[in-house]
Write a structure and sequence with these properties.
Layout (H helix, E strand, L loop, with lengths): L1 H18 L5 H29 L5 H30 L1 H20 L16 H14 L1 H30 L6 H27 L1 H21 L3 H35 L1
Helix pairs in contact: 1-2, 1-4, 3-4, 3-7, 3-9, 5-6, 6-7, 6-9, 7-8, 7-9, 8-9
């Protein structure tokens, strides 16, 4: 809830900046940096709540549902933003985004069951806990592999999301074309996210993850070579169908490994 409050304030400040015509790169970069810190704190908190909200046997479907719902927002968000921006302008659209964080915080307040994990970290022991966790992960081959895989994914695939506006200009798209590309990415993620569970059960997570990584890399290479809007849209769809399900498989494997090590 604290992170959601911070995100509300950040989105509100961004709306205020844009309303007043402030486009200073330093100010915008500072907002993005703090927003990134908030996301870095919030996402693990969200992930850690899932095992406390659903039974163990429903854990993997719950993770998939979370990913699918997140990508549904990626589809509806740009479409809604295009409509509201054309009617009320970008500042009002971002202010609406700020209000959405308040809505999420209110939803959190409706959860009555205690959201408490099995461990406790005292802030004075924070550094020691981090070092202990890092040593455990590095000594465990399975956790070490997952850590490297996550690092590689985070260092490569997310950059494509931030490059979409520049890519849109490179292929001659108009002001609304970035929203088309984001929607294509979201649609690809939705289609693949709904089928990745069944495919992983049939072919195995490792093979599916390898195929998704190869497909995602190929789509990024194709994006660097194709320069028309139709091809760009198709590539965006393929990229969305590769990148997001890859993170879903990583999340599932991480959840299972973490649970196994916790039991040990």
């Amino acid at each position: 809830i604290a992170v959601l409050v911070v995100q509300t304030v950040l989105a509100g400040l961004l709306a205020l900046f844009i309303h007043n015509g402030l486009t200073a790169p330093v100010a915008l970069a500072a907002l993005v940096a703090v927003q990134g810190c908030a996301n870095a704190v919030g996402q693990p908190a969200y992930a850690s709540m899932i095992p406390l909200l659903v039974p163990r046997e429903d854990l993997y479907p719950a993770i998939s549902l979370g990913s699918v719902s997140w990508n549904a927002g990626r589809i509806l968000g740009p479409m809604l933003a295009g409509i509201t921006t054309s009617i009320w302008g970008p500042a009002a659209t971002i202010l609406g985004n700020a209000v959405s964080f308040v809505g999420m915080a209110l939803v959190m307040l409706t959860i009555r069951r205690p959201l408490k994990g099995g461990g406790e970290v005292r802030m004075r022991d924070f550094r020691r806990e981090l070092v202990t966790a890092a040593k455990l992960m590095w000594r465990s081959p399975s956790l070490r592999t997952m850590l490297i895989a996550v690092a590689v994914l985070q260092a490569t695939f997310p950059t494509m999301f931030s490059l979409v506006p520049l890519y849109s200009k490179a292929v001659g798209g108009g002001k609304s074309f970035p929203q088309v590309l984001y929607t294509a990415i979201g649609l690809g993620a939705m289609v693949a996210g709904l089928s990745v569970s069944a495919l992983a059960r049939q072919f195995g997570r490792s093979k599916m993850l390898t195929a998704l990584l190869v497909s995602g890399a190929a789509s990024m290479i194709a994006a660097s070579q194709l320069h028309d809007r139709v091809s760009a849209t198709i590539v965006a769809f393929i990229f969305g169908g590769s990148a997001v399900p890859a993170f879903v498989l990583i999340d599932r494997k991480s959840t299972r490994l973490n649970s196994s090590h916790s039991q040990q």
